[in-house]
Amino acid sequence: MAVVLLLGGNCLFAQTQHSGKKNAPVITYSDLDVALEHKEKVESFSYRLNELEFLNPALGELEHLKFLDLKGNALFHLPVSLGRLVALESCILSENKLAKVPTYVSNWKSLKFLQLDENQLVDLPSEIGGLKALEFLDVSWNQLSYINTSIGDLGHLKYLGADHNALYSLPPEVNNLSRLEILQLSYNRISYLPDAVEGWQSLQELHVNHNQIKALPKSMGDLSKLKVLDVSFNQLTEIPKAFKKLDALESLNLAHNELTEIPKAIYKMKNLKTLLLLGNDIGSKEIEKLKRKLPNLRVIA
Fold first, then answer.
1. What is the pTM of this model?
2. What does the pLDDT look like over 99-114, one tens digit per residue?
Protein backbone atom coordinates (compact mmCIF):
# COMPACT_ATOMS: atom_id res chain seq x y z
CA MET A 1 0.00 0.00 0.00
CA ALA A 2 1.38 3.39 -0.91
CA VAL A 3 1.66 6.48 1.27
CA VAL A 4 0.32 9.80 0.04
CA LEU A 5 2.81 12.67 0.20
CA LEU A 6 1.71 16.28 -0.13
CA LEU A 7 3.45 19.20 -1.74
CA GLY A 8 2.40 22.72 -0.92
CA GLY A 9 1.15 22.09 2.59
CA ASN A 10 -2.42 21.13 1.70
CA CYS A 11 -4.18 18.83 4.14
CA LEU A 12 -5.65 15.88 2.30
CA PHE A 13 -7.99 13.31 3.80
CA ALA A 14 -6.60 9.82 4.15
CA GLN A 15 -7.17 7.87 0.97
CA THR A 16 -5.08 4.91 -0.06
CA GLN A 17 -3.24 5.43 -3.32
CA HIS A 18 -1.89 2.67 -5.48
CA SER A 19 1.20 2.87 -7.60
CA GLY A 20 2.32 0.67 -10.45
CA LYS A 21 5.59 0.03 -8.61
CA LYS A 22 5.48 -2.03 -5.46
CA ASN A 23 5.94 0.08 -2.30
CA ALA A 24 6.51 3.23 -4.36
CA PRO A 25 4.97 6.38 -2.78
CA VAL A 26 2.46 8.37 -4.81
CA ILE A 27 3.14 12.10 -4.65
CA THR A 28 0.06 14.31 -4.54
CA TYR A 29 0.95 17.53 -6.35
CA SER A 30 -0.75 20.84 -5.51
CA ASP A 31 1.27 23.13 -7.79
CA LEU A 32 0.14 22.83 -11.40
CA ASP A 33 3.35 24.25 -12.89
CA VAL A 34 5.41 21.67 -11.02
CA ALA A 35 2.99 18.92 -11.98
CA LEU A 36 3.17 19.84 -15.67
CA GLU A 37 6.95 19.51 -15.55
CA HIS A 38 6.45 15.88 -14.51
CA LYS A 39 3.16 15.22 -16.28
CA GLU A 40 4.20 11.79 -17.54
CA LYS A 41 4.49 10.63 -13.92
CA VAL A 42 1.77 12.59 -12.10
CA GLU A 43 -0.98 10.31 -10.78
CA SER A 44 -2.40 12.46 -7.95
CA PHE A 45 -3.29 16.17 -7.81
CA SER A 46 -5.07 18.32 -5.19
CA TYR A 47 -6.43 21.86 -5.24
CA ARG A 48 -8.37 21.26 -2.02
CA LEU A 49 -9.70 24.31 -0.09
CA ASN A 50 -8.23 26.94 -2.40
CA GLU A 51 -11.48 28.89 -3.05
CA LEU A 52 -10.85 28.77 -6.79
CA GLU A 53 -13.61 29.98 -9.11
CA PHE A 54 -11.93 28.77 -12.29
CA LEU A 55 -9.60 25.92 -13.15
CA ASN A 56 -6.63 26.22 -15.46
CA PRO A 57 -7.52 24.09 -18.53
CA ALA A 58 -3.90 22.90 -18.52
CA LEU A 59 -4.94 20.52 -15.74
CA GLY A 60 -6.29 18.33 -18.53
CA GLU A 61 -2.73 17.72 -19.71
CA LEU A 62 -2.13 15.43 -16.73
CA GLU A 63 -3.39 12.49 -18.74
CA HIS A 64 -1.95 9.87 -16.37
CA LEU A 65 -3.86 11.32 -13.41
CA LYS A 66 -5.69 8.75 -11.26
CA PHE A 67 -6.67 10.87 -8.27
CA LEU A 68 -8.07 14.43 -8.43
CA ASP A 69 -9.20 16.41 -5.38
CA LEU A 70 -10.95 19.75 -5.97
CA LYS A 71 -12.97 19.84 -2.74
CA GLY A 72 -13.79 23.14 -1.06
CA ASN A 73 -13.47 25.63 -3.87
CA ALA A 74 -16.00 27.91 -5.59
CA LEU A 75 -16.09 26.24 -8.98
CA PHE A 76 -19.16 26.91 -11.15
CA HIS A 77 -18.03 24.70 -14.01
CA LEU A 78 -15.17 22.44 -15.06
CA PRO A 79 -13.06 23.00 -18.19
CA VAL A 80 -13.67 20.72 -21.17
CA SER A 81 -10.02 19.68 -21.05
CA LEU A 82 -10.71 17.49 -18.00
CA GLY A 83 -12.44 15.09 -20.35
CA ARG A 84 -8.95 13.97 -21.35
CA LEU A 85 -8.29 12.49 -17.90
CA VAL A 86 -9.19 9.00 -19.07
CA ALA A 87 -7.06 7.26 -16.42
CA LEU A 88 -8.95 8.92 -13.53
CA GLU A 89 -10.06 6.53 -10.78
CA SER A 90 -11.07 8.92 -7.96
CA CYS A 91 -12.51 12.41 -8.28
CA ILE A 92 -13.58 14.64 -5.38
CA LEU A 93 -15.68 17.67 -6.34
CA SER A 94 -17.41 18.25 -3.00
CA GLU A 95 -18.25 21.71 -1.65
CA ASN A 96 -18.22 23.71 -4.85
CA LYS A 97 -20.93 25.57 -6.79
CA LEU A 98 -21.41 23.20 -9.69
CA ALA A 99 -24.88 23.34 -11.24
CA LYS A 100 -24.14 20.68 -13.86
CA VAL A 101 -22.03 17.58 -14.21
CA PRO A 102 -20.15 17.79 -17.52
CA THR A 103 -21.22 15.24 -20.10
CA TYR A 104 -17.60 14.29 -20.76
CA VAL A 105 -17.56 12.34 -17.49
CA SER A 106 -18.42 9.35 -19.67
CA ASN A 107 -14.77 9.49 -20.82
CA TRP A 108 -13.68 8.51 -17.31
CA LYS A 109 -14.11 4.80 -17.94
CA SER A 110 -11.85 3.81 -15.03
CA LEU A 111 -13.57 6.02 -12.43
CA LYS A 112 -14.51 4.15 -9.26
CA PHE A 113 -15.04 6.97 -6.75
CA LEU A 114 -16.98 10.21 -7.41
CA GLN A 115 -17.96 12.79 -4.79
CA LEU A 116 -20.30 15.59 -5.88
CA ASP A 117 -21.87 16.40 -2.52
CA GLU A 118 -22.59 19.98 -1.42
CA ASN A 119 -22.90 21.58 -4.83
CA GLN A 120 -25.89 23.13 -6.63
CA LEU A 121 -26.80 20.24 -8.92
CA VAL A 122 -30.38 20.11 -10.20
CA ASP A 123 -29.94 16.99 -12.31
CA LEU A 124 -27.45 14.38 -13.46
CA PRO A 125 -26.67 13.86 -17.15
CA SER A 126 -27.52 10.57 -18.84
CA GLU A 127 -23.79 10.20 -19.46
CA ILE A 128 -23.37 9.33 -15.78
CA GLY A 129 -24.51 5.86 -16.79
CA GLY A 130 -21.34 5.48 -18.83
CA LEU A 131 -19.24 5.18 -15.67
CA LYS A 132 -19.33 1.40 -15.76
CA ALA A 133 -16.54 0.97 -13.18
CA LEU A 134 -18.09 3.36 -10.62
CA GLU A 135 -18.44 1.92 -7.11
CA PHE A 136 -19.05 5.04 -4.99
CA LEU A 137 -21.29 7.99 -5.91
CA ASP A 138 -22.17 10.79 -3.50
CA VAL A 139 -24.59 13.47 -4.73
CA SER A 140 -25.96 14.42 -1.30
CA TRP A 141 -26.72 18.00 -0.27
CA ASN A 142 -27.70 19.20 -3.73
CA GLN A 143 -30.99 20.26 -5.35
CA LEU A 144 -31.88 17.09 -7.25
CA SER A 145 -35.60 16.53 -7.79
CA TYR A 146 -35.09 13.35 -9.82
CA ILE A 147 -32.36 10.87 -10.70
CA ASN A 148 -31.65 10.07 -14.33
CA THR A 149 -32.73 6.59 -15.43
CA SER A 150 -29.18 5.88 -16.60
CA ILE A 151 -28.30 5.33 -12.92
CA GLY A 152 -29.43 1.78 -13.55
CA ASP A 153 -26.44 1.22 -15.84
CA LEU A 154 -23.99 1.51 -12.93
CA GLY A 155 -23.65 -2.22 -12.46
CA HIS A 156 -20.66 -2.00 -10.08
CA LEU A 157 -22.10 0.68 -7.78
CA LYS A 158 -21.80 -0.22 -4.07
CA TYR A 159 -22.63 3.13 -2.42
CA LEU A 160 -25.16 5.74 -3.50
CA GLY A 161 -25.59 8.83 -1.36
CA ALA A 162 -28.47 11.10 -2.40
CA ASP A 163 -29.65 12.40 0.97
CA HIS A 164 -30.57 16.05 1.55
CA ASN A 165 -31.98 16.72 -1.90
CA ALA A 166 -35.51 17.32 -3.22
CA LEU A 167 -36.21 13.86 -4.65
CA TYR A 168 -39.85 12.81 -5.05
CA SER A 169 -39.18 9.27 -6.25
CA LEU A 170 -36.61 6.91 -7.75
CA PRO A 171 -36.63 5.58 -11.31
CA PRO A 172 -37.51 1.87 -11.68
CA GLU A 173 -34.06 1.31 -13.17
CA VAL A 174 -32.50 1.45 -9.69
CA ASN A 175 -33.60 -2.17 -9.36
CA ASN A 176 -30.67 -3.02 -11.65
CA LEU A 177 -28.14 -2.03 -8.97
CA SER A 178 -27.45 -5.59 -7.88
CA ARG A 179 -24.13 -4.76 -6.17
CA LEU A 180 -25.43 -1.81 -4.17
CA GLU A 181 -24.58 -2.19 -0.46
CA ILE A 182 -25.53 1.18 1.05
CA LEU A 183 -28.30 3.52 -0.13
CA GLN A 184 -28.72 6.90 1.55
CA LEU A 185 -31.96 8.75 0.70
CA SER A 186 -32.69 10.61 3.94
CA TYR A 187 -34.15 14.11 3.99
CA ASN A 188 -35.90 14.19 0.64
CA ARG A 189 -39.56 14.39 -0.44
CA ILE A 190 -39.94 10.77 -1.47
CA SER A 191 -43.54 9.53 -1.23
CA TYR A 192 -42.93 5.98 -2.46
CA LEU A 193 -40.22 3.53 -3.44
CA PRO A 194 -40.36 1.53 -6.67
CA ASP A 195 -42.50 -1.61 -6.45
CA ALA A 196 -39.60 -3.75 -7.67
CA VAL A 197 -36.48 -3.53 -5.51
CA GLU A 198 -35.71 -7.24 -5.25
CA GLY A 199 -32.71 -6.61 -7.49
CA TRP A 200 -30.89 -5.04 -4.52
CA GLN A 201 -29.52 -8.43 -3.51
CA SER A 202 -26.31 -6.96 -2.03
CA LEU A 203 -28.01 -4.18 -0.06
CA GLN A 204 -27.01 -4.05 3.61
CA GLU A 205 -28.17 -0.57 4.64
CA LEU A 206 -31.16 1.48 3.50
CA HIS A 207 -31.75 4.94 4.96
CA VAL A 208 -34.97 6.65 3.84
CA ASN A 209 -35.76 8.56 7.04
CA HIS A 210 -37.31 12.04 6.92
CA ASN A 211 -39.37 11.55 3.77
CA GLN A 212 -43.10 11.25 3.04
CA ILE A 213 -43.41 7.50 2.48
CA LYS A 214 -46.82 6.01 3.25
CA ALA A 215 -46.12 2.39 2.28
CA LEU A 216 -43.13 0.17 1.59
CA PRO A 217 -42.96 -2.29 -1.33
CA LYS A 218 -43.50 -5.99 -0.62
CA SER A 219 -40.43 -6.80 -2.70
CA MET A 220 -38.24 -5.43 0.10
CA GLY A 221 -38.92 -8.71 1.87
CA ASP A 222 -36.54 -10.33 -0.62
CA LEU A 223 -33.53 -8.27 0.49
CA SER A 224 -31.75 -11.17 2.15
CA LYS A 225 -28.63 -9.21 3.16
CA LEU A 226 -30.33 -6.13 4.59
CA LYS A 227 -28.99 -5.40 8.08
CA VAL A 228 -30.01 -1.80 8.74
CA LEU A 229 -33.33 -0.21 7.75
CA ASP A 230 -34.19 3.34 8.80
CA VAL A 231 -37.65 4.50 7.75
CA SER A 232 -38.20 6.89 10.66
CA PHE A 233 -40.03 10.20 10.21
CA ASN A 234 -42.33 9.03 7.43
CA GLN A 235 -46.08 8.31 7.27
CA LEU A 236 -46.17 4.53 7.56
CA THR A 237 -49.24 2.86 9.05
CA GLU A 238 -47.88 -0.68 8.59
CA ILE A 239 -45.04 -2.67 7.10
CA PRO A 240 -45.52 -5.53 4.63
CA LYS A 241 -45.94 -9.06 5.98
CA ALA A 242 -43.15 -10.06 3.60
CA PHE A 243 -40.70 -8.33 5.95
CA LYS A 244 -40.78 -11.46 8.10
CA LYS A 245 -38.29 -12.90 5.58
CA LEU A 246 -35.65 -10.28 6.45
CA ASP A 247 -33.50 -12.76 8.36
CA ALA A 248 -30.35 -10.60 8.26
CA LEU A 249 -32.03 -7.47 9.63
CA GLU A 250 -30.43 -6.29 12.88
CA SER A 251 -31.63 -2.70 13.23
CA LEU A 252 -35.08 -1.38 12.34
CA ASN A 253 -36.01 2.25 12.94
CA LEU A 254 -39.75 2.88 12.67
CA ALA A 255 -39.78 5.93 14.93
CA HIS A 256 -42.13 8.85 14.20
CA ASN A 257 -44.52 7.19 11.80
CA GLU A 258 -48.28 6.53 12.11
CA LEU A 259 -48.24 2.98 13.46
CA THR A 260 -50.99 2.02 15.89
CA GLU A 261 -49.86 -1.55 16.54
CA ILE A 262 -46.72 -3.68 16.42
CA PRO A 263 -46.33 -5.04 12.87
CA LYS A 264 -46.67 -8.82 13.03
CA ALA A 265 -43.64 -9.31 10.79
CA ILE A 266 -41.38 -8.07 13.60
CA TYR A 267 -42.11 -11.18 15.68
CA LYS A 268 -40.62 -13.29 12.87
CA MET A 269 -37.37 -11.36 12.39
CA LYS A 270 -34.80 -13.86 13.64
CA ASN A 271 -31.76 -11.60 14.06
CA LEU A 272 -33.34 -8.27 14.94
CA LYS A 273 -31.40 -6.65 17.78
CA THR A 274 -32.66 -3.05 17.91
CA LEU A 275 -36.16 -1.70 17.25
CA LEU A 276 -37.12 1.97 17.51
CA LEU A 277 -40.81 2.80 17.86
CA LEU A 278 -40.75 6.29 19.38
CA GLY A 279 -43.33 8.75 18.11
CA ASN A 280 -46.00 6.21 17.11
CA ASP A 281 -49.41 5.64 18.65
CA ILE A 282 -48.75 2.15 20.01
CA GLY A 283 -50.13 1.29 23.43
CA SER A 284 -47.78 0.53 26.30
CA LYS A 285 -49.38 -2.90 26.87
CA GLU A 286 -48.51 -3.95 23.35
CA ILE A 287 -44.95 -2.73 23.81
CA GLU A 288 -44.61 -4.77 27.00
CA LYS A 289 -46.02 -7.82 25.24
CA LEU A 290 -43.35 -7.47 22.53
CA LYS A 291 -40.61 -7.23 25.15
CA ARG A 292 -41.82 -10.40 26.84
CA LYS A 293 -41.98 -12.40 23.64
CA LEU A 294 -38.64 -11.12 22.36
CA PRO A 295 -36.56 -10.58 25.53
CA ASN A 296 -33.29 -10.23 23.62
CA LEU A 297 -34.64 -7.43 21.44
CA ARG A 298 -33.72 -3.90 22.47
CA VAL A 299 -36.93 -1.91 22.10
CA ILE A 300 -36.85 1.89 22.25
CA ALA A 301 -40.39 3.23 22.50
1. 0.91
2. 999 999 999 999 999 9
Give pLDDT tens digits for 49-103.
999 999 999 999 999 999 999 999 999 999 999 999 999 999 999 999 999 999 9
Distance CA 70, CA 142 (A): 17
Residue 115: strand, helix, or coil: strand
C-beta neighbour count of 239 within 10 angstroms: 24
Element spanning 285, H or E: helix 284-293
